[in-house]
TrEMBL record:
Pfam families: NAD_binding_10. It comes from Symbiochloris irregularis. GO terms for molecular function: oxidoreductase activity, acting on the CH-NH group of donors, NAD or NADP as acceptor. PANTHER family: FLAVIN REDUCTASE (NADPH). This is NAD(P)-binding domain-containing protein.
Length: 257
């Protein structure tokens, strides 16, 4: 039986891979995207054939989100981390998503969180780098964790799975992903990096197999994966953004009497 996949953030790195691999597996896909024109050209044929439908809008727009939820069997929440700025984007989406899924009798949800937002998630990071990674995760951490709480508190009817990736890079598929439910995995050979492609395939497999329901799934890869050239501007921008936010927080603190 063909499953209809709902992908929030369908033009993002993970979202576009979920769309691609979902179509390759003969699923129908309904994607939500703020900028549909960013879709890869090879997705246009799928739109023409009716296998892919794109709803234009923000995941915080109730009408747009409802159009996706009511049409699909499983939801992949892959909207990203609010560009490393403080805010409540993921939490707001979570509250609205739970409301709409309950309304339309939809149960299955896979949500991408961030392992490094959890203090215990830093165990996979070499000791000398933990301070930097924790600093980088500072702004997005509170939001993704609050969204997790919304899903966990929804009740047993919601069949959620929280995906906990470490650092993710745009590299070719390795098919060497380690998945572990229940606690954070220890790094193997010092690796704490996975690929977007491996994570997207793992999420599709999880949805298809009905595994990891009401569980966190922590991801790791024993392969040595260093950042590619595509990741360097993103990494630099993230560091600059976090440094700026940290400086602003320091300025807002009252001086000692």
């Amino acid at each position: 039986m063909t499953t209809v996949l709902g992908v929030l953030g369908a033009t993002g790195v993970t979202g576009s891979l979920l769309v691609q691999y979902g179509l390759e597996r003969e699923h129908q896909v309904v994607g939500l995207a703020r900028f549909p024109w960013k879709l890869p050209g090879d997705h246009l044929d799928a739109i023409s054939s009716g296998k892919l439908r794109i709803v234009k809008g923000d995941a915080r727009d109730e009408a747009a989100l409802e159009e996706v939820v009511k049409s699909t069997d499983v939801i992949f929440e892959a909207t990203g981390h609010n560009h490393n700025r403080p805010g409540t984007m993921r939490e707001d989406i979570a509250k609205l998503l739970v409301k709409l899924m309950r309304k339309h009798g939809k149960k299955r949800l896979l949500y991408i969180s961030a392992a490094f937002a959890h203090e215990e998630g830093l165990v996979v990071v070499p000791q000398r780098m933990r301070g930097m990674v924790a600093f980088m995760s500072d702004n997005k951490g509170a939001d993704v964790l609050k969204a997790e709480e919304v899903y966990r508190a929804a009740g047993s009817w919601l069949e959620w799975t929280v995906i906990q990736p470490p650092r993710i890079v745009q590299k070719p598929l390795t098919e060497d992903l380690i998945t572990k439910a229940g606690k954070f995995p220890q790094a193997q050979n010092g690796s704490f990096t996975i690929t977007f492609a491996d994570m997207a395939l793992m999420m599709l497999d999880t949805a298809a197999n009905g595994t990891f329901i009401h569980q966190d799934v922590y991801l790791n890869c024993p392969s040595k994966l260093s950042p590619g050239l595509k990741d360097i501007p993103k990494f630099a921008d993230m560091m600059i953004t976090n440094l700026g936010n940290a400086l602003r927080r320091c300025k807002r603190r009252p001086s000692a009497p």
